[in-house]
């Protein structure tokens, strides 16, 4: 005769005193949803009568299923004292906070470890570095250097340039090198000198005014070096190709932009369109006739509108502007004179 499933039997089961046959009967009895609700109700009543044991209904039911599968686990396990639980929870909370702080510090290391000096479109800015060197940034440029160790805690004087800048580097008593790293892995190594670096459009151009510098740049299967003399200019393409020449002393210096002047010597209009994009964030569209034109002259402009207006007056061209996009074209009435 089968044993009846009642409260007394379940209470005995909750205390771990049921036989394998009774456990099998309970397993069959719990197949019905109504019996499961009754099971949880009696479990809650039993827990209220036995406060020294704190159980979770889901955990208790899981353990019951484990018992029916032939396991020998107890139906309920006393928990550790509350004060021990609090200490463990506090430990894991502190560990979690520490891990979070370390993770955030690692992810933001470029911010707190490096100082960034940047200019907006149309802005020119001069700064003096901790070692006394002076840097003048052209518009839409960025210079990064160590926030803590540049020229103070160590002889390292390294900066990372994106855009264009003029450098006037001071010579230190210990002959420490000053290194400029560009976006296409070109490195300019100097002791004390004046030079200009332009890293726009995945190319690097260096013009040396005074002193001596050494360029290190990636070439196929090797790192090449090149030493510059005052008056030299070097163009380095992304493929490691280097072009070298001498600055024409009759021309204006490369840093007329410091005074918001733009000097063009037979400069193709596409290059001027690139300048408007790099320095002022404009997208310039040229028709085929304008794209073949070259410009000679010096223009004074504090913003893009002044420079575009100067070109319009020079060539008598049509302008259509839509936000940051400018279309320049030859008037339909006739060719450019």
TrEMBL record:
UniProt entry tagged with the keyword Membrane: yes
Transmembrane segments annotated in the record for this chain: 88-107
UniProt domain Protein FecR C-terminal: residue ranges: 262-326
InterPro entries: FecR, FecR_C, Ferrdict_sens_TM
Record GO terms (molecular function): sigma factor antagonist activity
Top-level taxonomic group: Bacteria
Protein's UniProt name: FecR domain-containing protein
UniProt source species: Spirosoma validum
Record keywords, A-Z: Membrane, Transmembrane, Transmembrane helix
Domain named FecR protein: residues: 116-214
Keyword Ribonucleoprotein: no
């Amino acid at each position: 005769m089968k044993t009846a499933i009642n409260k007394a039997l379940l209470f005995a089961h909750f205390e771990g005193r049921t036989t394998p046959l009774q456990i099998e009967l309970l397993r069959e009895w719990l197949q019905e949803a109504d019996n499961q609700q009754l099971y949880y109700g009696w479990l809650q009543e039993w827990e209220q009568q036995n406060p020294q044991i704190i159980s979770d209904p889901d955990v208790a039911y899981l353990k019951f299923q484990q018992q029916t599968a032939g396991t020998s686990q107890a139906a309920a396990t006393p928990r550790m004292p509350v004060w021990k639980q609090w200490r463990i929870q506090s430990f894991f909370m502190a560990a979690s906070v520490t891990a979070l702080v370390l993770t955030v510090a690692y992810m933001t290391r470029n911010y707190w470890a490096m100082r960034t000096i940047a200019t907006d479109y149309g802005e020119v800015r001069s700064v003096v570095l901790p070692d006394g060197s002076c840097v003048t940034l052209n518009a839409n440029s960025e210079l990064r250097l160590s926030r803590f160790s540049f020229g103070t805690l160590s002889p390292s004087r390294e900066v990372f340039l994106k855009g264009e800048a003029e450098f006037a580097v001071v010579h230190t008593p210990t002959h420490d090198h000053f290194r400029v790293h560009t976006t296409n892995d070109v490195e300019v190594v100097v002791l004390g000198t004046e030079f200009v670096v332009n890293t726009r459009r995945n190319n690097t151009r260096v013009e040396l005014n005074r002193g001596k510098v050494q360029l290190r740049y990636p070439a196929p299967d090797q790192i090449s070096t090149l030493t510059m003399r005052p008056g030299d200019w070097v163009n380095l393409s992304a493929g490691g190709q280097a072009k070298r020449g001498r600055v024409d002393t009759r021309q204006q210096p490369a840093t007329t932009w410091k005074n918001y002047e733009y000097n063009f010597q037979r400069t193709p209009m596409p290059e001027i369109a690139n300048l408007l994009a790099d320095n002022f964030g404009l997208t310039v569209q040229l028709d085929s006739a304008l794209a073949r034109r070259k410009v000679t002259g010096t223009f004074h402009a504090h913003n893009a509108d002044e420079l575009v207006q100067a070109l319009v007056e020079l060539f008598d061209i049509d302008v259509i502007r839509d936000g940051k996009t400018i279309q320049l074209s030859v008037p339909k009435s006739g060719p450019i004179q």
